[in-house]
Amino acid sequence: MTSFLSTDRPDQIYRLITPLFIHAGILRCIFTVVGQMTIMRNFETMIGWHRLSIIYFISGIGGYLASSIFVPYMPEVGPAGSQGGVLGALIINVLYNWHFIRRPRKVLLIHLAIAAFLFLTGFVPYIDNWAQLFGFVIGCLLAAALIPYFHFGKQTRHQRIIIVVGSLSITFLIFVILFTTFYAYPIIDNPVFSWLNCPFTNSKVCDHQSLILKNWLPI
Length: 219
Known about the structure:
globular; transmembrane helix; serine-type endopeptidase activity; Inactive_Rhomboid; transmembrane
């Protein structure tokens, strides 16, 4: 890691990428590896490594960018945003291939249940719901634009173009808003935003997430 060039502005943009490769403990590392070797491995075979890589990394970067804005005092590592993005892409894949999947409603419900479970894990130490939420949204948008759509016809082609252009435009707009907010207002201190990660902000339950780190400053 390098030192800050400015004392009052964030200038270590690489910190949006490096946490994707770091894990807070062996259990989270095992969870990530198992997910990559099972779910993501099969998904990669379906849509290709290049599409999955774009979804994984851009969702993770967007998730950490949102996290740095809404919970700036919470230290975090791990690919929570990326995992949320992959899950969102899996749901879009089910919707895209609805007629080709056996019992698609059951498959969709399973994916939605996993999404709800991951959201609940955001209350566990050092797992950020802001990263997972924004990663999930960005993953859905990118998947809508990148995942192959196996339907044919002139009307379907026009609809596909609208979906691709619309999804990429919204994704670009999200990043513009996040980057603008990040550099214009590097610290947004509002307890309402911290509540999404830990609803017990008035007690010591949230101390382990460093959501009240500002009370300890300067260290």
